[in-house]
Design goal:
The chain is 76% helix and 0% strand. InterPro entries: PUP_plant. Belongs to the purine permeases (TC 2.A.7.14) family.
Length: 407
């Protein structure tokens, strides 16, 4: 599962830093920009939902390889390469000319570290989806916002507002209701141990998700110091390449590759559906990645992350339709709390956007008033200079002459 990156700075001035850290959703947008935002949002919601549902389908119909389920989450990145090659080149700016680029060794360390972390997170997601109902899995995954805010507070010095705190409490309660739910709600009939393993891995994957977001933001802020469309795509490709290599090592080291042929033959829907399921799962994750990158480029990474979380409460409804899972009272309450937490989190960013827009408007007004103020100041200075150049006697005679009445 690919993790969207966070916004980065492109300049060192406080005003520019504040502007880049704020969402640009409040700026005026053209029809084509709004259309692209809508398309990318649909990519995020549809890609994520389809990928998770296909992953559940793979397990339900006889798939057993956790490493294979992990591999399809990260190995579809070649689909993005044409998108990367066709993307417009980065326009040089004054900041980019004077910016010190990180060394190759530093970049390799970043890609390797984040790629290995991505592979570990994807593996935990695969284990969690194996042992949990898809609705329970999706609702627990909403806790990623909680972990993201927590790690951002520790690593990126993010401040907690009342709306963020309210969101974190709601999302924590939403996940806790499902974590402490009895195993009888599991339709797969797994043992208590497997059910608890699924819960632990899903929560761990959500924590890893939040940690990775914060580390990626730290890398962009402190090392790369820029966030262009090209740089984001490079991060996806190289990071996914490392995650794919790490997953392949796990697949062969665990020996699961030996049973793939038998798994394919025993798949309930046949070999063709087996291969198609894996291919379309990989494609769905990359559709999600493209939508994520598109929203980062068009709006902001925070907005992209919130949209990805928005799609998670929708998955339980789809699970009821496609997998006939039961929507009991606990799951319904958990879903309502998750949506409420999302709204609170989104409203916090809406207030930030409004504040940023007001600050930007004040700055523009101040800049527009500078020529007029300068003109008035120059005029006052000119009158002052003229007044100072008039001799005192002349001023006195002028006043006396003005006081003589006309006959």
């Amino acid at each position: 599962m690919f993790l969207p990156v966070q916004e980065a700075e492109e300049a060192n001035s406080p005003g520019h830093i504040n502007a880049t850290n704020q969402s640009t959703i409040s700026q005026p947008r053209t029809f084509m920009q709004l259309l692209r935002m809508t398309i990318f949002t649909l990519f995020v919601l549809s890609g994520q939902s389809a990928a998770i549902l296909l992953g559940r389908f793979y397990y339900d119909k006889g798939g057993k390889s956790k490493w294979t389920a992990t591999l399809v989450q990260v190995a579809g990145f070649p689909i993005i390469i044409p998108y990367y090659l066709l993307s417009p080149p980065e326009k040089p700016t004054t900041n980019s000319i004077h910016r010190n680029e990180p060394s190759t060794l530093i970049l390799v360390l970043i890609y390797v570290s984040l790629g290995v972390l991505q592979a570990a997170n994807s593996m935990m997601y695969s284990v969690g989806l194996l042992h949990l109902p898809v609705s329970t899995f999706a609702l627990i995954c909403t806790s990623q916002l909680t972990f993201n805010a927590f790690f951002s507070f520790l690593i990126n010095s993010q401040k907690f507002t009342p709306f963020i705190i309210n969101s974190l409490v709601l999302l924590t309660i939403s996940s806790a209701l499902l974590v402490f739910q009895t195993n009888s709600m599991n339709p797969t009939g797994n043992s208590n141990v497997n059910y608890e393993i699924g819960l632990f891995c899903t929560v761990g994957a959500s924590a890893g998700y939040g940690l990775m977001l914060s580390l990626t933001e730290l890398c962009f802020h402190k090392i790369l110091r820029r966030e262009t469309f090209t740089v984001i795509l490079e991060m996806i490709i190289y990071q996914s390449l490392v995650a794919t290599c790490a997953t392949l090592v796990g697949l062969f080291a665990s020996g699961e590759w030996k049973g793939l042929k038998r798994e394919m033959d025993e798949f309930e829907q046949g070999m063709f559906i087996y291969v198609s399921t894996l291919i379309w799962t990989a494609i769905a994750w990359q559709i999600f990645n493209i939508g994520t990158v598109g929203l980062i480029h068009e709006v902001s990474s925070q907005f992209s992350n919130v949209i990805s979380v928005l799609g998670l409460p929708v998955i339980p409804v789809l699970a009821v339709i496609f997998f006939h899972e039961k929507m009991d009272g606990v799951k319904a309450i958990s879903m309502v709390l998750a949506i409420w937490g999302f709204i609170s989190y989104f409203y916090h960013h809406y207030l930030d956007d409004s504040e940023a827009k007001a600050e930007k408007r004040d700055v523009k007004e101040e800049i527009s008033m500078r020529p007029l103020l300068k003109e008035v100041t120059n005029e006052q200075d000119g009158l002052k200079n003229i007044y100072q150049k008039i001799p005192l006697s002349t001023e006195t005679n002028f006043m006396s002459t003005e006081a003589i009445p006309l006959s």
